[in-house]
Design brief:
By secondary structure, this protein is of the alpha/beta class. 46% of the residues lie in helices and 12% in strands.
Length: 490
């Protein structure tokens, strides 16, 4: 199956349907159908290896029972198919009976469909889309490989689907971070805002090269853990893990900030945490109350940094994507978090990325922070990744590639201070004392060049929300100081 043909044909089909409004709904519609196709293929494999396997989806609702068009005139289409999906399939999958003993491989079906929607209104167009998906043959290597490319393309397209872009971290970034952290079989790897499971699947790809036995394969399948709050990326993430041979995905649909961080036991901590937390968002006061007063922030990314510090095992390693605002922020929560990273953890590396890495979703400059739970910070190394020669910015048509991080990867294993041609620091080392004496300002070894970025309306709104959240946090901190002073004088 041709990748370009599948994407263009599916888009054309859904654009003809009045029920699908925009790219975000088109992707959501396509992904629940893809999930059922993938799940049906996995069930065929489970049934082959275990004759006693009992499916959780009723037989008449399984993909194999209603989706294939056998050209005998009996396949559902038109109003019959539309009624079947809306009145039978969706209500049944949203209410599948789940108990404490239900395997993850089965309970995930209900979790996926609880917040999924069937947007299409034309049963004939639905039949065309179902037929297109059903052509994928998972027994054929070429089709499996093509489907992997199709899926990766869908994830990339989220970047231009309005606010959905927050769910996708460029593969070059996730692969680079995993390579630098180097998880090993037997370790547990977590992402507490997992989106479409990009970090987790990069981890699985890295671990797959270490598999040499049946026991290794079992360790591979139980190595990753994720939580995702929003329904569409959760659906995409679960499907992504199933495609990577994780039959019992430990992928939870929920908000990882909704538990008091003081309550986590050692058994709930991880060897490795890698993530790109959402930034520019806010949480309710009840969620902030799950954190010590010093870490309560109006910026969601700050709360996730605090969460990581409570869920990282002793000697564990972490890699996090964060905006520039965290580096130079001086409100109470950011200062407290940076103090914790320097005095209680080993913040050993900060990789600075060009501002256009996440284009077209956002032009906000981002950084990769690497730290571990081995003791206090002695020194922090900075490395600045510059745009490739001939690039004015990364874009949807010219995205960041893994090769653009090759110099950073080489420097990682042979650290030295570097100046660029203009004498500006490209790689530089600072002692923890220098960073502390500088007021915990981590905005160092920056980009000397000035660039002008023209933002789309969506990008402008996203940029505004991030800056507003930072200002709100500063205002909250000042109000807290004033209230404290008033309390003293009363």
């Amino acid at each position: 199956m041709s990748l370009n043909s599948f994407i263009s044909t599916s888009r054309k089909i859904m654009r003809g349907d009045a029920g699908v409004d925009g790219d975000a709904q088109r992707i959501a519609q396509l992904t629940w159908l893809l999930f059922l196709k993938v799940y049906d293929a996995k069930e065929a494999d489970w049934e082959f290896h275990n004759p006693a396997y009992q499916p959780i989806i009723p037989e008449q609702l399984r993909w194999r029972s209603w989706a294939p068009d056998r050209k005998d005139g009996r396949s559902k289409t038109g109003e019959e198919l539309l009624t079947f999906l809306n009145a039978e399939l969706f209500p049944a999958l949203k209410s599948l009976p789940i108990t404490a003993s239900t395997p993850l491989s089965q309970s995930v079906v209900r979790a996926v469909f609880e917040d999924s929607n069937q947007y299409m209104k034309d049963g004939i167009l639905i039949r065309q889309l179902v037929n297109l998906i059903d052509e994928i043959d998972f027994e054929d290597y070429a089709d499996r490989h093509a489907f992997g490319e199709i899926y990766e393309t869908l994830l990339k397209e989220l970047q231009s689907a309005g606010s959905s872009g927050e769910y996708y971290t460029p593969r070059a970034v996730t692969d680079f971070m995993i390579e630098m952290i180097n998880p090993r079989l037997g370790e547990t790897v977590a992402d507490f805002a997992a989106g479409t499971a990009g970090f987790l699947t990069s981890t699985l790809k890295h671990l797959d090269e270490q598999v040499e036995s049946v026991e290794d394969r079992e360790a591979y399948r139980s190595s990753v853990y994720g939580i995702e709050k929003k329904p569409m990326p959760y659906l995409l993430g679960v499907t992504n893990l199933l495609l990577h041979d994780v039959d019992q995905p430990q992928f939870i649909h929920g908000n990882s900030l909704e538990r008091n961080v003081r309550d986590f036991k050692d058994s709930e901590k991880f060897d490795v945490v890698t993530m790109n937390p959402p930034y520019g968002g806010t949480e309710q006061e009840s969620v902030k109350a799950n954190f010590p007063q010093a870490f309560r922030s109006s910026e969601t990314a700050d709360l996730f940094i605090a969460l990581i510090t409570y869920r990282l095992k002793r000697h564990g390693r972490a890699g996090v994507v964060l905006p520039d605002g965290f580096l130079f922020g001086n409100d109470g929560a950011k200062l407290a978090l940076k103090e914790r990273l320097l005095k209680e953890f080993n913040l050993h590396t900060i990789i600075r990325l060009p501002g256009s890495v996440f284009s077209p979703y956002t032009p906000i400059a981002t950084n990769l922070l690497f730290f571990d739970n081995t003791g206090t910070t002695k020194e922090t190394w900075y490395y600045r990744v510059d745009l490739p020669e001939g690039y004015k910015a990364f874009s949807k048509t010219r995205p960041m590639l893994r090769e653009h991080l090759a110099d950073a990867a080489e420097w990682w294993t042979d650290r030295r201070e570097i100046e660029d041609a203009d004498g500006n620091p490209k790689a530089q080392r600072f002692t923890a004392d220098q960073l502390i004496e500088g007021g915990y300002n981590l905005d160092l070894c920056g980009f000397p060049q000035q660039t002008t970025v023209v933002l789309s309306p969506e990008e402008t709104i996203a940029d505004y929300k991030t800056k507003r959240a930072e200002l709100d946090a500063q205002i909250d901190a000042k109000i807290a100081q004033i209230e404290a002073l008033l309390a003293v004088t009363e």
